[in-house]
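tool=predict chain=A
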Amino acid sequence: MGFFRKKEESGSAERVTGKVSHLIVGLGNPGVVYEQTRHNAGFIAVDRLCEKLGVACVRAKFKSMYCEAMIGGERCVIIKPMTYMNNSGEAVAQWADFYKLSPENIVVIFDDITLEPSRLRIRRKGSDGGHNGMKSIIQLIGSSDIPRIRLGVGAKPSPEYDLADWVLSKFSQQELKLLQEAADKACAAAELIVKGEVDKAMNEYN
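tool=predict ok
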């Protein structure tokens, strides 16, 4: 936590050096119309991470907006795929191939409708859980051994409510405040995962 506090206070980025060791991926949909929607929780978390690190995803490459930063002493690439959610794997696979990264060195942050906006759930690996963005990544990477941080966005108000309409709906101001708090925890969890402390991240933030 001290690492992030230092960055937030200084507002400047640490000099990036060494070999890229990890890819940090925030999932969402590009465009103003999708800002602050439930499906863009991954984008929101990654933007918060960048803010803490004094960087921003403003460069374009491999169907993504991206930047680089030092996290936990490791050089990381942070990306926001611009492919739209269902094709997120296209961007992730290109980055992973370019830097020859193993699935274990890709950290994906995305929305979860089974959790309240204040909650997050971290897993070392697993299925896509019905999330189309994660499904695309697993298919194109060819492995489900991908650490992931799921951010709660709240359940549908009723079983009859259309799922697509729900995940593309905007957060209320109160929900957004809770999500930002969860995003702060996700930033700290991402640092632990990069440092190889996945179990500690799960114990502290699940």
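The longest strand covers residues 64-71. The two ends are 16 Å apart (CA to CA).
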